[in-house]
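TEACHING EXERCISE
Course module: macromolecular assemblies
Task: Read the component lines below, then compare them to the predicted structure of the full complex.
Student: A.B.
Group: 4
Components provided:
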Amino acid sequence: MSKRIENYLEDRKTLIEEALKKFMPEPSGLAGDVISAMNYSLFAGGKRIRPILCIAGAEAVGGSADDVLPVACAIELIHSYSLIHDDLPIMDNDDLRRGKPTNHKIFGEAVALLAGDGLLTLAFNLMAGYGVDEKVEKTALLRVIDLIASAAGYKGMVGGQVVDISYEGKNPEPAVVEYIHTHKTGAMIAASVTAGTILAGGSEEEAKSINRYGQQIGLAFQIADDILNIEGDRRAIGKEIGSDKVRGKITYPSVFGITESKNIQKRLIDDAVESLKRFNERAETLRDLARYIIKRKT
Amino acid sequence: MSKRIENYLEDRKTLIEEALKKFMPEPSGLAGDVISAMNYSLFAGGKRIRPILCIAGAEAVGGSADDVLPVACAIELIHSYSLIHDDLPIMDNDDLRRGKPTNHKIFGEAVALLAGDGLLTLAFNLMAGYGVDEKVEKTALLRVIDLIASAAGYKGMVGGQVVDISYEGKNPEPAVVEYIHTHKTGAMIAASVTAGTILAGGSEEEAKSINRYGQQIGLAFQIADDILNIEGDRRAIGKEIGSDKVRGKITYPSVFGITESKNIQKRLIDDAVESLKRFNERAETLRDLARYIIKRKT
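Instructor-supplied answer key:
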């Protein structure tokens, strides 16, 4: 990974961490427990790749992190909610996430469920509140809220999750694993980067190109996760290697084999970079991020 | 109940049912199961009182149902999501809701969880999409999305739920039951009626009065539910009478006794009507709705 992109990731991650701390409430009052649970998962680590992509999507059309921080943070809240719900015993039943006990192991299942609900709801609070208080283009913001809600809901992440669970232990055709990955992970990644572009005033055509880029890296991102679950380092990723296989999870390696999965991944990244051809050097960060996505170790 | 308000409830309910049918997707594709689960609970009956209040809140300042239908429907989606999550075994563990099997009894717990997530997310889709497509005042809409997200989240419904669950079987002071009821139920009811007023162009002062009215009837509504759980008709309400007591739920009757609960309820309705004094005959429906809330049998 180039020094440049390493510094970029570090710098933007710090911005996001600071903004998240500012936006999140302190635990207090009778419902303090659920606020603690929300904070616990949100600040339990993570690469902050989705909000970083949101910022990079803004920068590609001449915007800056300041234009999109509330939306970038809202996207991370939605990501955090999805992990809490996924880890529940009635879903994936995971005890560890990023090397730490999962939310329900600390707070109990009922509070964990509600912490997820609370984070998802707070995400929309943050986005809509941004439009009420700040000088932001209202129609662009409403488009972004619409886009993110679509990507998070039954047309995106929720749809991907339900298919993921229903095919566990089965042997589906390739179209099913593509559906799962593009919906479960790809949709929110594409929405993240596209939201940045729209909010920073990118044109319709620019937003379309960025969205295509986002879909390609989004799918590549989930294939990279699948591969890390086989070839990764347990301590680096903070959960057991091989857990997907034990559980009969539908993954690209399980359907295509690991060599072909890496070929698909490489083609997706090439296509993603190709999607950016209308952009000048401003999109260099997005090009580097595409390459980073399949090289990362965590 | 007066014939006038009976007709009003029937008429507005029909409007809402039709709009909900129009807004909801048909089950199709790989994720059809979760769409079926979302539709199942949304169309399993219900008084549609929150969206009706949203319409009535608009009418009180000279607006109409047409101005607010997408928001009114979004509110009902949020209500439906909250019931699905509440009924899960890790929460209230209810098998029956309105006389029908609860969502997880039909679709399983994982799909029910995701159906709740899907409805909550779709609600924001519907509201934001309304602003993208239609000629609606964008800042008012963003304020309404903000208000509804606040009322649904940790500052409102989610906060009330977590306290409700954590005090089950305990003997708390009166402030706790007031907190539970105002947050769990009152917040979304107040937001529903206030959203209608804001969206229909009501002034800051009008919205404040309507919000006070909403908080008062919202608390009275939950006390009425508590009383129906003791004195109601099993077939009419579609679940077992006395279930709150069996479960050690914190209710107004359990804390204040049934006579004092009825007195509190009556005072709340008087105060709610008083909150409307700045309004002319346009708010007559809201006055009738306040009285209906404590007279209803279901």
